[in-house]
Write a structure and sequence with these properties.
Blueprint: H1 3-25, H2 29-41, H3 43-53, H4 65-86, H5 95-116, H6 126-147, H7 155-162, H8 167-178, H9 181-188, H10 209-229, H11 233-249, H12 253-267, H13 273-290, H14 294-304, H15 315-321, H16 328-343, H17 356-359, H18 369-402, H19 406-425, H20 435-448
Length: 459
């Protein structure tokens, strides 16, 4: 018997003995053990199911279900890699995964420096830093896990299967539209964090309307890609319309800006009258629907009372008004001003990973991911943050430029539209905290790096 086979057999024996002890101590593990075995027995199917499942978990954040899920996926991925090595098979990864791995490891520097006193906060902030680094590490593991499907599952099949991740969030969104808050609150807001208001802004299962908006935009790009390659276009056009309805129902102003950038990037390779008119009609229609509701009108009118639109309103005055006028943009200006002043105290390395809330005067995220990166990582952290996004844009552009497969080329263009829109939204929103968005982003990013040229576009 070869050594890898012997090691695998020995590992199975150890797992069997350990499982026996665990099940005898914790009967609920009877569910986990078969799931563990099924993961290795039906690897491709198990990974696809795990990917689809993630979009339904944020509702149970108060039970730490998303965190448990992320740790579980990390452990399963690492165990699968160990088994792969023991069996003498090759672990699949690409160059960008190695770059991302180095970047994630580099972020661990801020976790190490916290207890050593090298940052703006002391060792009491370490748990938050570990939690944030673990979140980043889980994205790295998802990337690596999806890479193991390369040459085993057709990329078209994975992308199509991922659309099932829309089912539960959209169903939850429908319930939030038609059912009274008294019925919805025990299901979608058991802790009372949203104040029981589900009718004005739809959030699906994503915990917050803004999070739901970015999630929907990513899947709008996938449905659009399906639309461009399908012969039954009316079906995908209908689904696009449904997603746009939910997208508008989130009533997030920043999402309108994201959609505009997304649409412009999509038509940029083929600028013609038809595409330009289609883009204008889409943007006009979305803005019209958004402003057709009292909430949308109120949100749009609030922008007029900000220094961004009103030159007669100085920033200092807007900051003072933010304490009484309930204008979210002026409130953001006040928070950004405070945090920028705090960044001067520890300019080089900041206060520590995942600790911008501790530094903020209102104990909320900064609502600007660049200021967040500056507060948590200092100038070095901000530069590394920008480098990550620049590297992603460059990688996707090269794939788009060099691809000979039209379906792959269009897929890369859709991802480029997303990654160019996200940094714009990060100016006024906490998109970096949208864990579900980046979970699926890195899934799709991994697939984009595969060699699609060997696949028959008509297959």
């Amino acid at each position: 018997m070869r050594i890898p086979a012997l090691a695998t057999s020995l590992g199975c024996v150890i797992f069997g003995i350990t499982s026996g002890f665990v099940v005898s101590a914790y009967p609920l593990a009877l569910v986990g053990v078969p799931a563990f075995v099924g993961f290795f027995s039906y690897f491709e199917q198990a990974v696809l199911i795990l990917l689809v499942l993630r979009s339904s978990l944020d509702t149970f954040s108060y039970l730490s279900i998303p965190a448990i899920y992320a740790i579980g996926v990390d452990i399963l991925t690492l165990l699968y890699l160990v088994v792969t090595v023991f069996q003498g098979r090759k672990i699949k990864c690409d160059r960008f995964w190695w770059f991302f791995a180095i970047w994630v490891m580099f972020q661990g520097l801020w976790v190490i420096l916290l207890p050593l006193g090298g940052l703006g906060l002391d060792g009491s902030a370490v748990p938050d830093a570990i939690r944030e680094w673990t979140r980043l590490f889980s994205w790295l593991m998802v990337y690596l896990l999806v890479m193991q499907l390369k040459d085993r599952v057709h990329p078209h099949k994975i992308i199509s299967f991922l659309l099932l991740a829309l089912v539960i969030p959209l169903l939850a969104g429908v319930l939030q539209m038609i059912l009274p808050p008294a019925i919805l609150a025990p299901i979608f807001d058991p802790t009372g964090t949203s104040g029981g208001d589900f009718s004005s802004r739809i959030k699906g299962t994503l915990g917050h309307p803004n999070t739901f908006a970015t999630f929907l935009l990513l899947f709008i790009s996938l449905v659009y890609w399906q639309f461009t390659k399908s012969r039954i276009r009316w079906l995908w056009l209908t689904l696009l319309g449904v997603l746009m309805l939910f997208y508008i129902s989130t009533k997030a102003i920043f999402s309108l800006v994201l959609l505009i950038v997304f649409a412009i990037v999509l038509i940029s390779p083929k600028l013609n009258i038809t595409n330009i008119l289609s883009c204008i009609i889409l943007i006009t229609l979305v803005l019209g629907l958004f402003s057709s509701t009292p909430y949308g009108q109120e949100r749009l009118s609030s922008i007029l009372q900000t220094p961004l639109i009103n030159p007669d309103l100085p920033i200092d005055r807007a900051i003072l008004l933010s304490e009484t006028d309930s204008n979210s943009f002026n409130w953001r200006l006040a928070q950004w001003t405070y945090l920028l002043k705090k960044s001067h105290d520890f300019p080089l390395l900041g206060y520590g990973l995942g600790n911008s809330i501790q530094v903020s005067n209102n104990k909320l995220l900064p609502h600007n991911d660049y200021i967040r990166a500056l507060i948590e990582g200092g100038i070095i952290g901000l530069v590394s943050y920008l480098v990550l996004f620049i590297a992603q844009i460059r990688h996707l552009f090269i794939l788009f430029k060099n691809s000979l497969n039209p379906l792959h080329k269009n897929f890369c263009l859709c991802l480029l539209a997303i990654i160019l829109a996200i940094p714009v939204g990060m100016i006024t929103e906490n998109i970096w905290s949208h864990t579900t968005l980046f979970f699926y982003w890195w899934t799709l990013f991994a697939i984009a790096g595969w060699d699609w040229n060997k696949y028959n576009p008509s297959n």
